[in-house]
Specification:
Structural class: alpha+beta
Radius of gyration: 11 Å
Strand order of the largest sheet: 1-2-4-3
Shape: globular
Helix content: 25-40%
Number of strands: 4
Distance between the termini: 20 Å
Largest sheet: 4 strands, mixed
Mean pLDDT: 97
Number of helices: 2
Strand content: 25-35%
Order of helices and strands: EHEHEE
Length: about 80
């Protein structure tokens, strides 16, 4: 899947990936997709939960070297 913006949070512990994603999503347009790279296993729980709470759409996860990639579509 194509994304508009990517942030690298590899090596950071939660809640930093969620906080960085939140900050970056604020500046994005509705419908844009953010790709978050994270190595902390808690991101697999925290990022989808954040999306539900903040009104964004969690699009899924894939494996990348050193961690996982999470796709988030900015809500309205």
């Amino acid at each position: 899947m194509k994304w508009d913006v990517e942030i690298d949070c590899l090596g950071m512990l939660c809640p930093l990936p969620v906080l960085r994603a939140r900050k970056r999503l604020i500046g994005m347009a509705a419908g844009d997709v953010l790709r978050v790279l994270a190595s902390d296993k808690m991101a697999a729980i925290d990022l989808p939960h954040f999306c539900v709470e903040a009104g964004h759409k969690f699009l899924g996860t894939s494996d990348v070297k050193g961690g996982s990639a999470y796709l988030i579509q900015r809500g309205m």
